[in-house]
Structure formats: structure tokens, C-alpha cells
């Protein structure tokens, strides 16, 4: 049992949700991207194993989204969110003492499960509370946590280059644990929003209005995950010494992008903003293919993908909610499951390409095709029901 506490300002729930995303996405998930080439150089994992680890993590993410829906339906959403965000931080810490690949794969799987639970429940809970308070226009700002997490995790990796092997996980873990405890407990006490209850509308999610949007979002999952997992590894493979690094450009571009796409969605409409979002993201991946081996391709890919991928997430969530306004976390879980499933394909396709002699960067053609798919499917999506 718990006692709900009414926030003194709408910004505190937004900050708390953003902090959970810093923990699970910045420190738990995407710290792996700048660490990947270092862990390979240290001999802890091979390049092929690095793709497999990403696949295990994204498999867990998909399972976690489904678990979040079960927890919500059993009225365990609050407790599940609290346990998942703290467990995610502890799993990052556990990786410090693991050097065997099978054990590391198991931890990355569990990390993905807890990430999926948090990524469904935290934004959904705060979004419904904001709707109740007539503040839904601020909902996209929760996703600043992803950009902040990318930036801080990159800084932690750069500042602790004296570490090696499995101990490279330690800085992210030490930063994650106190943030996880505070944010998880705060959201555990947040009052329920307008539709966070077990009487959710269970009408079909897939209908003529929403099906193109869902299929478009599936393309976004494959489109963004290749650069977001392998961009630093591609820079290392091309022997391009970028200052600042490609991953730092991604992180810096992601910070203003949250405000930018939130504002564009409010002014142009979420659908029109998404059309531009997909076009720019596809151009970013295309740049890497057009200028192979050159810093220009890396810069443009990092800037355009880093500046769009967060907007894709919350603009799609908001537009989907306008099409199905009473679906609650069920809607979030369905979208994240689609996104998570196609994310699985990215590392698998990269691994398949590497094992068959292809350059890692060449596998990004799949990401470009997926984003073009997403762009074309956005066109028939209605602006609102």
C-alpha cells in the first residue's frame, strides 16, 4: 500500500520520469554504445559478440514492454516501476564483476527487461497525470532524460578512460543507483491520472486510422537502432578521429531536439512533425552510406539521427493517444513492443553482414530502407480521429 502525494508543480513528475529514463536509457542501455569499441579493444568481447549482446538487450526490452502491460493489468504498475528502475541500476553495477560472455549476455537481457518496464510505465503514468492536470502539452519534455543520459554517459566514459575491461561499467552504475531510488520512489507516490486504472478501454488498437502509424513506428525501430548502437564502432572501423566524437554529437543533438519536436508537434500537429522527423532521420542514415569512410558522413548521421529519434518516440505516442484516447499503458506497451521487435533486427542484420564479410557501415542500408518505409506510411495517417 502507498499514500499518493500531490506534486507542488507539474514539473516534478516530468523531472522524475526524465530521471528514470536517464537511469535505464542513458546509464543502463546506451552507455554500451561508447563502451562497445573499448570493450572490443580490451578483449572482453569480439565485434560479433557485441552485436549479439545488443540483440539480447533488445530482446529483453521487448519482453519488458509486455511485462509492463501485465503489471498494469494486475494493478502492480507502481510497484513494478519502482522495482524495475532500481533493479536496472543494480544490474549495471553487477556487470562490473562479469567477464564471461554468457553471464554478460544474461545481464544485458535482464537490463533490457527492466528498461522496457520503466519505459512503458513511467512516461504513461506521468502522461495520464498531466492530462488530468491539463498539462499534456509538456509531456514530450519527459524525454529530455534520454538526451541527458546520452550526454552524461558519454562524459563518464570519456573521463574514466583509465579503467579497463568490465570495470568500465562502474561509473555509470554509481551514478544510476541514487537517481533510480529517488525517481522510482517519487513516481510510486504520484497520484493516479485520468485513465490509469483497470477499466481501460479495450477496443481494438489496430484499425484503419492507427495501423499505418503503428507500422511506420516499426520502421523507426530498425531505422534508428543501427547508428545508435554502432556509430562509434563505425568511426573506429573507418579510422576516423572525430573531435568531438560521433557519439558526443548524437548526445548534444538530442538535448535541444526534445524541445524542438515538442514545439513543432504543438504548432504543426504531431502528424506533420513526424513526416519531417522521418525525412531528416532517413537523410542522416543516408549520409553515412553516401560518404563512406569520411567524417562528413559520420557527422551528418550523428547530428540528424541524434536530433530526431527522441521526437519520433513521443510524437508517435501522442498521436496514437489522440487516435485511442482511453487505452493508457496498453497503448504504450503495444508501441514499444513494435519498436522493440524491429530493434532486434538491427544488431542481427549487422551480425549477419559482418559474418558474411560486409563492412559494418554497409549494414546501415537496412536502417535507411526502414526509415523510408516509416515516412511513406506516415502519409495516410489522420491528424486526429
TrEMBL record:
Question: Which keywords belong to this entry?
Answer: Membrane, Transmembrane, Transmembrane helix
TM annotation in the entry: 12-32, 52-72, 79-98, 110-131, 143-163, 169-188, 209-226, 246-262, 274-291, 297-316, 328-346, 358-379
Q: Which InterPro entries match?
A: MFS_4, MFS_trans_sf
What Gene3D superfamilies is this protein classified in?
A: MFS general substrate transporter like domains
PANTHER family, per this entry? Answer: PTHR23537, SUGAR TRANSPORTER
Can you say what this protein is called? Answer: YbfB/YjiJ family MFS transporter
Q: What is the lineage of its organism?
A: Bacteria, Pseudomonadati, Pseudomonadota, Gammaproteobacteria, Oceanospirillales
